[in-house]
# Entry
Amino acid sequence: MPLPRLQFAHFMTYDELTAFVEELAASAPGVVRLRSIGDSREGRAIHLLAITDESTGPAEAKPAYLVHGNIHAVELAGTHAALFTARKLAAEGRKSELLKRVGFYIVPRINPDGAEFAVTTSGSIRSRTDRSERAANTLYQEDVNGDGLILTMRLPHPNGPFVSDPKDRRLLIRRTRKSKPPFFRTLPEGMVHEWDGTDHIAVEGRSLDWNRNWSYDWRPEPEQWGAGDFPFSEPEMRALAEFIFSRPNLFGILGYHTGPNAVLRPPSTGSENDLNEGDVRIMQELAEVGAEHTGFPVIPVVKYRRDDARDINLRGHFHDFGYRHLGLFVFEFELGILMNSAGIKTKDIFAVKRDEAHEALVRRMMKWWDKQKRRDPVFAPWTPFAHPQLGRVEIGGLLHRHVANPTPADLKRIAAGTYRFTIAHASRHPRVVIEDPQAERMGEGVYRIRARVANRGEFPTHVSNRGRSLRRLQGVRVEFRPAEGVRLLSEAGHRTLGHLNGLTDGRDLEWFVAAEGDPETLCELRVLGGAGGNAAVTVSLPD
Ligand SMILES: [Zn+2]
# Structure
């Protein structure tokens, strides 16, 4: 059975995603396994692909790398990029040296409910909107004109902050002192709950941002917008956290988002000077590898902002969680937005200081779009509609799901770059091995067993300097299991080695045993290597 084709024509619905991951697993037996890390709030399974060459052991016994995407509802490109990596790895399969030694966990869509809303309606939510307690005078997004989409409503209003752009009538621009009517106000397409007929209409309910729901420096609203009730209060995030903490073999994580394209690295709060200096050097070096493969700029999260803004502080964010609570080098790639696909660089987007400059970039994007042969439906014409509450409105405008992502066609090139980065990062995995196991006869029925346990990977078994101090990243342990009829003479069988540095750090180990008769084997050595993976060897009698 051939691997399923990953199309780059449109973003995927949940059913399309499910069909793809099922086919991928079925077409790559012994390499790809489909599991679920739990169910979403609305009951959709959150797919997990575990990918490794199982002929050398399951992913759980190897150093492992996690890729996740689409934590934010409309950032659908992340699902695609994660699936690109999954499919590439599946195609490599047993030919890959890396898959013999490393396991990959891929969660292409952490937020299947939010993504389904975004992909089917193009409506705009961050991760989730709590609509359980509907507030009065509040607009809830809904497809009121029945065209299948949730677009923008514009209404003429004397206080309206927008006017139609004289240079491109499709667009709305900020009203200035010189603007002439008609003036417009805008609302998302929807219905106002218990409207009292006034102009004061709030939009949607409580909005949750799951990339503010991680545990490091979590703060409640209103200190941190979108935080949720407590760290991992959202079931999807809880499922991911439980998965992460059940896998001490994880040594690297990459998350996919869409914003102006960038390779993001810690810190997400405070200053770089708060982090270990050696760790910052390595995370920067790795991020530059990402930049090389994607063409994206490297930006610490706190600096991912307009040039004229202050540094940002994101509480409960993935980056500081990944570095400070897991001790790992973690990254998020912002895969881009439609402006990037139109050839506008991230530095030009962040250089914008005034509304006029932003409006000029949108115009440039639309001009580029007009010239495309195959056009994704990024704009819906303003169409008059008699709204049951608001009266005469026009519904149309830019489609969020396209504006907030690179084009699917562009994504193919981008995903190839992020895949190469993933391989480069993952290739530095720690790798715990048992070398030169041997037994020597010392006298009648007495034997000496020797072996070297070493880390021949590039990262230390504690991955980062930060990781050395954390309980989660476990040091190396050796279990000594004597064969039947073999008795240990040494003081201790099991050994705790602690962490091993990369490449050149090894320990020579020695045991003495006594054996009755002539047993075929003397013992089994099992090495539990934490992030470096497990290894085992059976030691036989010398010939
Ligand atoms: Zn995002």
Notes: The pocket of zinc ion is lined by residues 72, 75, 257 (CB under 6 Å). The chain has a mean pLDDT of 96.
